[in-house]
Amino acid sequence: MYLKNLTMLGFKSFADKTSLNFLPGVTAIVGPNGCGKSNVADAVRWVLGEQSAKALRGDEMADVIFNGTDRRKPMGLAEVSLTIGGVDQAQLKAAGVELLYDEVTITRRVFRDGTSEYFLNKTPCRLKDIQQLFMGTGVGRSSYSIMAQGNITQLLSSKPEDRRAVFEEAAGISKYKAQRREALRKLEQTEQNLVRIADLLREVKRQLGSLHRQAGRARRQRDLLLEVQRLDTQLARHQFDVLQSEIGQRLEQLQRVDGQMQQAAAEIDATERELNRLRAQMLELEHQISQAQQHRLELKNQTDQHQSRIQFNHQRLRELGAQQAQAQADIAQAQERRRSAEAQRDALAQQLAQATATLEQHRRNLEARRQAVRQLDEALHQTQEAIRAAQAEAFDAAQRLAALRNQIAALDLQKQANAARHEKLSLEKIQLEQERAGLQAQLAEFAAQLQAETQQVQSAREALAQQYQRLEQLTAALKTISAQLDEAQRQQAEQSSRLAVLHQLEAEHEGFSPGALAALKAAEQGHVVLGSLADKIRVADPFVPAIEAALGHHLQLVLTEQPATAEQILAELRAQRKGRASIAPMALHRDAGGLDEGSATDPPVADCPAMAEASAARVEPPPLDGQPFPALAVVEADPGVWPLLQRLLGSTRIVADLPAATAAWQETRGAFDYVTLAGDLLSGLGIYTGGSSQAPESGPGSILARKNQIAQLQASLAKVQEQLAQLQQQKAALTSEQTQLQAAIQQGQTELRTLEVTVATHQGQLQSLENALRVLHQKIDTVVYELESLNTQAQEAAKQRQGLIAQLAEAEATDQAARAQLAQLTERLEQVRQQREAALTALSEARVVVATQEQVCAALRQQQQPVELRLQELAELTAQRQGELALYAQRKLQLEAQIQESHEAIGQLDQAAAEASQQVAGLEQARNGIQAELNHGEERLRALRQQVAEWQQQRSGLEVELAQKQLAVEHLRQRIQERYRINLDDVPTECITITFADEGQPKVTVLSPEQMAAAGLAPDWDKVAEHLAHLQQKLEEMGPVNPVAIQEYEATQERYRALSEQYDDLVKAKAELMELIQRINTQTRAMFAETFQKIREHFRALFSEVFGGGSADLVLCDESDVLESGIEILARPPGKQLRSISLLSGGEQTMTAVALLFAIYEVKPSPFCLLDELDAALDEANINRFVRLLQRFVSRSQFILITHNKRTIGMADVLYGITMQEPGVSKVVSVKFHKAGEPVPDHRPVELETPVEGQRVEGVGDQVQTKEQTLE
Predict the structure, then answer these.
(1) How far apart are the first and last CA of the chain?
(2) Per-residue pLDDT tens for 998-1020?
(3) What Å distances lie between residue 934 and 270, 271, 927, CA to CA?
(4) Where in the sequence is the domain holding 462, given as residue range(s)?
(5) CA 337 vs CA 327, 347, 375, 513, 883: distances in Å
(6) Are 1272 and 1206 in contact (CB under 8 A)?
(7) pLDDT at 1139
(8) For residues 1063 and 198, is the Cβ–Cβ distance under 8 A?
(9) Is the pLDDT of residue 682 over 80?
(10) Which of 637, 672, 700 delimits the end of a domain?
């Protein structure tokens, strides 16, 4: 496998499509600085998947796209293709990569919007696919196949843990490490899924227990229903046959009675004609009597009406009097309340006036303190101006002082020059004196500089030691933070899974009956459903069992707004056979106003102070000190459902235990229901309900407790997330500080090495200056006698110098005075500043006091508003009651007038009634004569009719019996049809006998009538009816049964089985993943240990070879943990004992990295190796060693060198030159070398525009022949 081709388009400076062909051997890439050579290495690293823009010398990934020049526009994309030839499929397959190609082309493309594309042989793929392709081969963006000059420092100075990547790639375990990371990720997901599935299994198992019991009851009910149907239909068939026989008998009796009645009818007709004549006369008299009596009755009715009207008006007068008294009482009460409110208003007004006065006083105080601060600011400004003036005066004095000193120094120099001239010193003597002065100054400068530099070296070493110590502390802190972060993430995952399960149960209304669930889903059909009662209330955990026991199945109440919605939902449940549900329309409970005042068991809230207080304020429940308290006190609910809760819980009290409940019940004689904290109930009827269920009431199955658990989990999860965010922030801060500290250490090491080199250089220069100075002194000693002529000039200079010294003393005095004045002003400035700070503090305190007093005034004004509103309401009430009093007086006068009118009408009606009574008496006497004749005829007719009536009665009885029998038959048909959907006429007639075994169990035998007669048995239908009633009673005793429990149980059982299988699969997967991880750890540990030992041995040998001695070693930081241990590199060149590899020089570090690189190649060579200016820091001797190593490994791997060194270029088989003929755009020129005597293709010579490193070459295209065989 080797690198065959690299094609770039729009990548960095390669704007045009540029292709570089590579052959096995050595290829060198050369060119001047800044022409884009390193962009070739960046292109290889980028196409192999580099994701860090900084590693590519950019700030963001879009920086790799050609950004344009003065002549060219920016490009919209960058594309690099890398072709690998000579792919060994067997080798890749052994590495775990399945590939069916001998040649692989990898392409990466990026657009300016950040979109990236990857291609494998022109087929779109993922970055992961490319990474997996080269994993374990030594090729990759961060492997040892690409080594740049900057990577040397990074490799040697990085943390021991960061060096593992190179060794892992050499050991071929990088793909196993990736598999291990993937397995760990899957293991974490599996553990989270296990937690979630376990929660679901526990919940479904709890449901199975409940559904198992419900399904058993449903099966028993189904069997009983089938038996009841069989017995009921046969008993009905027997009754049907008996009734049909009795109907035939009744029809024959009716025919006989009808004949007798026809004979008596003729005789009755004759008698009736005579009686009709008499009745006509009688009717006329009766009519007259009736009219007279009617008139008399009307008169009496009118009298009674007037009497009733008088009584009614008297009653209204009494009521008006009571209403007048009540209105007067209301007026008096309103006036009293108004006086109280006015007093309160006056008190508030007085308080407000006092508070306002206090506020004004505080504001004046605030303004005074502001004035004090302004005065101090002015004083501070004046002091600062005075200081500036004093500083200017001191500066002038210092300047004059410096000028005098310079004049004195000038006299001294002039004295030396004049002495030399007057004593006729030779030009050589003058030059020697000047040279001596220069050497002395240079020597002093070098000595001071060397001392400072030596001090800087010591300081740099101490700073590096402190930074290393801080780096160790940061590493330990990061390890601790990471452990805490892992624990917080585990808690977050566990709680999130549990919360998701509870949310799912809450959304599915787990624990609700099928009918209630169907009613809640009615909202999907357009009905307005407000939810369930359980959704609208909240109860603290200690009281959940008590409230659930008190409410019972009412927790599943479905809430609607209007009764019509409830009727429609129930009709749909009945029509669709979806079960039963309880529905509470809120409108009914709001209209009813809460509790029913007429209920004995549910007293109104107004009659129960504790309940009224709980209902109105929702206060915290009192402690259980043995006294019962209302259940409503522990319930928080939406305001809309409170009237419903008052009806459900208004008569319920909470006590500590059952003995307390019994005692309280006996005191109130069953006026309340009592429920304990454990969930036991003592009803007002004296019935105890309690015990235990399969799941505790506060467990996951509890509807109210589940809501509390969700709230608690949400709060806990929020805390965990907050903790997680804090830990992540701490980790990020520590990581950032660690990165900055590592960069600072690296920079400090570089600066330290630079300082050490500078100190050594200056020490040599100082020694040379000292030697030169000694030579000058020897020369000057020979001309000492010439110095006698200096005396005369020295005397004259001394006089002038004395005058300057006197002036210098005066200048120094002036300077000292200016400095003293400046010190005084500075002290004054500090005092003014302290006073100003104190004034500012007092000003802040005054502002706080003013703000507080303003709040007090605002509060008093707010208190005045409700008092004024109350006064207005009382005035309106008084006016209203006074208007009512006037209305009552007017109505009273009207009623008294009506009473007087009724008394007068009664007298007139009594006189008319007496006259009507006399008329009635005369008419009744005439009627009595005709009545005697009628009585005789009617006696005869009565006898005849009595006989007919007896026959009619007999006939009616027969008809009634016949109708009853027919109705009973129809009722039987209808009952059987409605109950069992069976036509009774189609039921075959059978006989049933019931016998009882010794243990008392009934045995039912069904036979046909023929079989019954043949067996000599007679059916006992009374026993059948008795047994049927017994079965029906058992059905009633079973109570409500979930009709779909069997199907739900089977579905839940199937779900439990599926979840169990999932759980088993996850457990198995977890075990397999742990086994895989263990297997990977074992394999990679062995592979890494073997490879590391081989690299270590080769590194020792190669280090001694490239350095000509010395020693080096590779050491695991923690040999007990081979898979995670860092790797320390120890290197000691000949004659040196260095404590850290960072103390090596640049060349030594490069050669150490070269030794390590080729030690790795001894164990596992990469298909190709790209070295980017790796030899830049090497001298000539080390270059020769480096070239010899390259020549040794050329047969094992392909080398691509980016270099400036002629010796390195000399061993290249192919040479590429990178130029920039156009500014900002890189071009490529290639040269291929041939050995001496090798035939060269006959091409037309072409002179390259840019010679390679000063060499003139000729050729065509990529095949070029050199005129020289070496580049020396």
Answers:
(1) 33
(2) 555 666 667 667 776 676 666 77
(3) 14, 11, 11
(4) 427-503+718-782
(5) 15, 15, 57, 56, 20
(6) yes
(7) 55
(8) yes
(9) yes
(10) 700
Cα within 13 Å of Cα(790), Cβ side: 14
Q: Please say which residue of 736, 762, 782 terminates a domain.
A: 782
Q: Are residues 637 and 772 in the same domain?
A: no
Give the CA distances from residue 839 to residues 340, 370, 625, 774, 802, in Å, rounded to whole numbers and listed in that order: 48, 8, 59, 70, 56
* Tokens found for residue 386: 């005075």
Distances in Å between the Cα of 20 and the Cα atoms of 29, 216, 1079, 1230 are: 10, 82, 43, 9
Question: Does 587 lie in the same domain as 551?
Answer: yes
- Please name which of 107, 88, 105, 85 lies closest in space to residue 97, comparing C-alpha atoms: 88
State the pLDDT at residue 881.
80
- State both tokens at 951: 């026959």
Q: What is the pLDDT of residue 83?
A: 93
Average pLDDT of the chain, as a whole number:
78
The token duo for 1170 is 């790209």
Q: Is 836 exposed, middle or buried, given 0-12, 13-18 or 19+ CB atoms closer than 10 A?
A: middle
**Contact between 214 and 511 (Cβ < 8 Å):** no
DSSP per-residue letters across 1001-1016? -EEEEEE-HHHHHHTT
Examine the domain organization and report whether 442 and 486 are in the same domain. Answer: yes
Domain count within the chain: 3
CA nearest 1208: which of 1252, 1149, 1168? 1252
Axis crossing angle, helix 149-157 with helix 1146-1163, rounded to the nearest 10: 90
Q: Do 538 and 685 fall within a single domain?
A: yes
465 domain-assigned: yes
CATH code of 748's domain: 1.10.287
Q: Is residue 547 in a domain? A: yes
Report which DSSP code applies to 250. H
pLDDT in tens, 830-845: 888 888 888 888 888 8
Name the phi and psi angles at 544, rounded to 5. Answer: -60, -50
**Statement to judge: residues 601 and 640 lie in one domain:** yes
What does the pLDDT average to over 1024-1045? 76
Confidence bin at 618 (pLDDT 50/70/90):
very low
Q: What is the DSSP string of 21-73?
A: E--SSEEEEE--TTSSHHHHHHHHHHHTT---TGGGTSSSGGGGB----SSSP
243 inside domain: no
Do both 776 and 726 map to the same domain? Answer: yes
In eight-state DSSP terms, residue 524 is G
